[in-house]
Specification:
Blueprint (H helix, E strand, L loop, with lengths): L9 E2 L6 E2 L2 E4 L12 H13 L4 E3 L8 H13 L6 E6 L15 H15 L4 E6 L8 H14 L2 E7 L3 H14 L4 E7 L11 H8 L2 E5 L38 H17 L3 H10 L7 E3 L4 H8 L8 H11 L8 H15 L2
Parallel strand pairs: 3-4, 3-10, 4-5, 5-6, 6-7, 7-8, 8-9
Antiparallel strand pairs: 1-2
Helix pairs in contact: 2-3, 4-5, 5-6, 7-8, 7-10
Length: 349
């Protein structure tokens, strides 16, 4: 039975797809390290569906394809495929020795979509993301290939992840000019600790009809509150360890600790956790559709999903805004970025 707001679906850009405000990211699905393992992943997946969730996000490079394979298995076990909005990504190195086994070129996209469909055991993918800009392939080639995949029925909507704002703007403008499938959404890093997308990406997305779906809303775990300014000798650095290559590390500054102090104080006042406050903040930002959450246990998933129940006061939002403010110091952004963000918020209904 749907509870706690996950059954209040939102339109994904201009795609016509309606998705839950909190999507389930499957980067943790698999085995080894910080992954959940198959049984834990199954329990998390089923609990997410029980709570009313319908938006599942994965990628072909997560676990070298293992995440897609496990997700495909779970979908076939537990639910009607058509109820779900399944998203996956292409662009990472799937065949390291093959020069065409990565990137954003047509040859790789066509091979990657067929491989993802096979691993996911499905006939179509609802939202297909370009995982990362390869700094090489023309926008025309990417958007024309996307459009052909939509027309073939292999995908329902297209998205861009980890791209410059100018590139996303060019892609959307070109698609509309040519009558191709438009960009439904952007997937970008966004949290109280990382607000750079407010300078250009968020205003561009709002203006051009693209939803924003943040990743890493807890800043690789920093905003959970489990880290401390002066850790005990031998304390585990976890996902923020300097030698971790992925997920990307966070370089901690005084600003990060100010954010954490504010989160801890607000969590204490509201009887919640720092992670819940941080998730609620990012999920309700102007221009943001919702956010992706990950978990390695059902308990962690429930805690994350319960973040939707929080209502932060104006004073609490101001406290978070002040602690996390990251106004750009360089021109031209320093001349107008804050005004642009304010205008973006004011334009929303």
């Amino acid at each position: 039975m749907a509870t706690n707001g996950l059954d209040h679906y939102f339109l994904l850009g201009s795609s016509g797809l309606r998705v839950s405000p909190l999507g389930l990211g499957t980067m943790t699905f698999g085995s080894g390290g910080w992954h959940a393992g198959e049984e834990a992943s199954r329990a998390i997946f089923r609990r997410y569906l029980e709570r009313g969730g319908n938006f599942i996000d994965t990628a072909d490079v997560y676990g070298a394809g293992a995440s897609e394979e496990l997700l495909g298995k779970l979908v076939r076990e537990t639910t009607d495929r058509d109820r779900l909005v399944i998203a996956t990504k292409f662009g990472g190195p799937t065949h390291p020795s093959d020069p065409n086994g990565r990137g954003n070129g047509r040859k790789h996209i066509l091979a990657a979509i067929d491989a993802s469909l096979r691993r996911l055991q499905t006939d179509y993918i609802d939202l297909y993301w370009l995982h990362m800009w390869d700094q090489l392939t023309d926008v025309d080639e990417v958007m024309a290939t996307f459009d052909s995949l939509v027309r073939s029925g292999k995908i329902r909507a297209v998205g861009l992840s980890n791209i410059p704002a100018w590139w996303a703007t060019k892609a959307q403008t070109l698609a509309r000019h040519r009558g191709w499938e438009p960009v439904a959404a952007l997937q970008l890093e966004y949290s109280l600790a990382e607000r750079t997308i407010e300078w250009e990406h968020l205003p561009a997305a709002l203006n051009l009809g693209m939803a924003v779906v943040p990743w890493s809303p807890l800043a690789n775990g920093f905003l959970t509150g489990k880290y401390h300014r002066d850790p005990a000798p031998g304390a585990e650095a976890g996902r923020l360890a300097a030698d971790r290559q992925w997920p990307m590390t966070v370089t901690l500054t005084d600003r990060h600790w100010r954010i954490l102090d504010a989160l801890n104080a607000i969590a204490a006042d509201t009887g919640t956790t720092p992670a819940q406050v941080a998730l609620n903040w990012v999920a309700t930002r102007p221009g943001v559709l919702g956010t992706l959450v990950g978990a390695t246990t059902v308990e962690q998933l429930d805690t994350n999903l319960d973040a939707l129940q929080i209502t932060l006061s104006a004073d609490q939002l101001t406290t978070l805004e002040t602690a996390s403010d990251s106004a750009p110091a360089m021109t031209p952004h320093s001349l107008f970025a804050r005004a642009v963000v304010s205008a973006t918020a004011a334009a929303l209904p």
